[in-house]
């Protein structure tokens, strides 16, 4: 790449520094969970609140009619580490978000020993009411965050619904204001380095490191 002027160089450096370093605090996310047919729907919202993450499930439909289900057990659901694959490929999401090597099944008497992505284990399965409808579900999870830990933040993840051992629906977890790290071949989608930590010094370090690299490149081109 040839830079024709210092202005171009600086503009490019600015672009590099801007990627993966959103200036806004990450406060809200959502996941529109469904299946390939679109006949199963669950809308998740994630809102950062004092003491944790407020998670709400609304508009739940289709779960009791679309699959050969075990209604009594209800539906398990989790945060999975990878995004959804093509054609609602729920297997592409891989395993549960579990940076602290928590155990499955979750023991509700000792939540800190659970997998942090095991939402159903910690807060209960999605269970239909007598008439087959699903009530809105809402709770505060004290372990999940958009930024921490670095290898277990909610950015770049997905939600998967299970019943009777089958992954029946899934959807990506979208976080407002989050830009994935620049695609340079090293991004795995596992969000190993969420950059919106709110620590400006870290963001500046990343920016200056990028600038230094670009300047070095520019010098070599001369
Ligand atoms: Cu799961």
Automatic annotation (TrEMBL):
Keywords for this protein: Signal
Single GO biological process annotation from the record: superoxide metabolic process
GO molecular-function term, one example from the UniProt record: metal ion binding
Keyword Signal: yes
Gene3D superfamilies: Superoxide dismutase, copper/zinc binding domain
InterPro entries, sorted: Cu-only_SOD, SOD-like_Cu/Zn_dom_sf, SOD_Cu_Zn_dom
Residues of the Superoxide dismutase copper/zinc binding domain: 76-166
Signal peptide: 1-18
Name of protein: Superoxide dismutase copper/zinc binding domain-containing protein
Taxonomic lineage: Eukaryota, Fungi, Fungi incertae sedis, Mucoromycota, Mortierellomycotina
């Amino acid at each position: 790449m040839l830079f024709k002027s210092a202005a171009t160089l600086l503009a490019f450096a600015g672009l590099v520094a801007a990627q993966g370093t959103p200036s806004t605090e990450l406060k809200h996310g959502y996941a529109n969970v469904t299946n390939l047919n679109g006949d199963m729907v669950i809308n998740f919202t994630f809102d950062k609140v004092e003491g944790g993450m407020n998670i709400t499930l609304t508009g739940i439909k289709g779960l009791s009619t679309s699959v050969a289900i075990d209604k009594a057990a209800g539906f398990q659901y989790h945060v999975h580490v990878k995004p959804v694959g093509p054609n609602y490929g729920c297997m592409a999401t891989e395993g549960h978000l579990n940076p602290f090597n928590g155990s499955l099944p979750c023991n509700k008497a000792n939540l800190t020993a659970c997998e942090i992505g095991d939402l159903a284990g910690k807060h209960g399965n999605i269970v239909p009411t007598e008439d087959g409808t699903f009530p809105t579900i809402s709770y505060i999870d004290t372990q999940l965050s958009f930024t921490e830990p670095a290898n277990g933040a909610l950015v770049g993840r997905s939600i998967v619904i299970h019943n009777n051992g089958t992954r029946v629906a899934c959807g990506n977890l979208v976080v407002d204001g989050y830009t994935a790290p620049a695609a340079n071949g090293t991004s795995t989608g596992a969000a190993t380095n969420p950059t919106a930590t709110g620590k400006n010094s870290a963001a500046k370090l990343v920016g200056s490191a990028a600038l230094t690299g670009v300047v070095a490149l520019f010098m070599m081109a001369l």
